[in-house]
Design a protein that fits this description.
Elements: H1 13-26, H2 38-54, H3 61-72
């Protein structure tokens, strides 16, 4: 988007984050879901099939976050 209708360069970082959140939240007002590409639908189908095959729901988010944080230090 080279020439946005709204010039947000004057906003602070916090205001830009809020703007992004507000825009994202406004998508909830849509009555129909956003369309998936064929590749996205295929990937989701693949992931569901993998889950059904092994039944492993993964790790709790706190455990996954701890692993990530350990690898960063």
């Amino acid at each position: 988007m080279p020439n946005p209708i709204f010039d947000f360069r004057h906003l602070t970082a916090e205001e830009r984050v809020q703007l992004a959140e507000d825009l994202w939240d406004s998508l909830d007002e849509l009555r129909e879901p956003l369309p998936l590409t064929a590749a996205q639908a295929e990937e989701l189908d693949h992931r569901v099939e993998e889950y059904r095959r092994d039944g492993n729901p993964g790790k709790p988010w706190a455990e996954a976050l701890a692993v990530i944080e350990q690898s960063r230090s």
